Amino acid sequence: EIAMAMLCIVEGSYGIGREDLYIECVRLLGFERTTTRNRDSLSRGYGYLVSKNKVREVDGRLQLTGSADN
Questions:
Q1: pLDDT in tens, the chain (70 residues)
Q2: Nearest C-alpha neighbor of 13 from the set 57, 53, 69
Q3: How many beta carbons lie within 10 A of that of residue 43, not counting itself?
Q4: Which long-range contacts (CB under 8 A, 24 or more apart) does 4-8 make?
Q5: Given CA atoms 44, 48, 54, 55 in this order, what sign does their dihedral have?
Q6: What predicted TM-score, i.e. pTM, was given to this entire model?
């Protein structure tokens, strides 16, 4: 769920930083702020997207890799 929210956010941006992605994801999921607990979940979601080659970080900005449909 977190990874899918992140993917939607990255898809709708022209390059977003990881911290901004975390903030937007937390808001999208209905939370008011980023906590230590949800930051751990956000990190795992981010790691999943990177490991599955869905997103990549270029110059501090996240981009879709072109394999986001898989």
A1: 899 999 999 999 988 999 999 999 999 999 988 898 889 999 999 999 999 999 999 999 999 997 645 4
A2: 57
A3: 13
A4: 5/29, 5/45, 6/42, 6/45, 6/46, 6/49, 6/55, 7/49, 7/54, 7/55, 7/64, 7/68
A5: positive
A6: 0.85
